[in-house]
Write a structure and sequence with these properties.
Elements lengths: L1 H7 L3 E2 L6 E5 L4 E7 L2 E2 L2 E2 L2 H15 L9 E2 L2 E6 L2 E6 L2
Length: 89
């Protein structure tokens, strides 16, 4: 059902990882990786995020857990210099 939703909203499924969906326009990029019942919304525009989050929530009743810190074995840290990703095996 999530796959159908994402295709209907213009997302493309990555060939290298079938749990990754992307949508890009001239002004924004959204990446959505998911695993079982966990999903990450990574976007370049907060407006675009809100435009997607509303129908996503209506369809799936999502819970916003705030800024990403850990996803599977991927640790995310933020600083004034940017975002760091660390894969802990």
């Amino acid at each position: 059902m999530l796959t159908t939703f994402l295709f209907a909203h213009g997302f493309m499924q990555a060939q290298s990882d079938h749990t990754l969906f992307t949508e890009s326009t001239s002004t924004s990029l959204i990446d959505i990786p998911f695993y079982v019942d966990d999903i990450i919304l990574a976007e370049t525009s907060l407006t675009v995020f809100d435009e997607l989050n509303v129908p996503l929530d209506k369809t799936f009743h999502v819970k916003d857990l705030g800024q990403l810190k850990l996803f599977l074995a991927l640790e995310v840290t933020r600083s004034s210099k940017g975002v760091s990703l660390c894969f802990n095996n």
